[in-house]
Amino acid sequence: MFIDFYQDMALGHFTIKRLEQKYGFDHIKKEYNNIVNNRN
């Protein structure tokens, strides 16, 4: 369970890093903030 958690966290981290490389840090941060702010 411990290893699964950190593998999932790494997958999410590196997915975000790839998106940042492709679309730019500022664009991905803006979209992330939109998602976070519209969850409710």
Tell me what you see in this structure:
This protein has 40 residues and is mostly helical. It has one domain (2-37). It is built from two helices and no strands. Helix 1 packs across helix 2. The model has no long low-confidence stretch (mean pLDDT 95).
Provide a brief overview of the structure.
The chain has 40 residues and is mainly α. The protein has helices at 2-23, 25-37.
Order of helices and strands: HH
Distance between the termini: 29 Å
> Low-confidence runs (pLDDT<50, min 5 residues)?
none
Percent strand: under 5%
Tally the beta strands: 0
Shape descriptor = flat
Which structural category do the helix and sheet elements fall into? Answer: mainly alpha
| Mean pLDDT over all positions | 95
Assembly type: single chain
Q: In this structure, how is the largest beta sheet organized?
A: none
Q: What is the number of independent domains?
A: 1
Based on CA atoms alone, the radius of gyration comes out at: 12 Å
Number of helices: 2
Share in helix: over 70%
Quickly list its features.
single chain; 40 residues; mainly alpha; 2 helices; 0% strand; flat
Write the layout of secondary structure elements.
Elements: H1 2-23, H2 25-37
Helix pairs in contact: 1-2
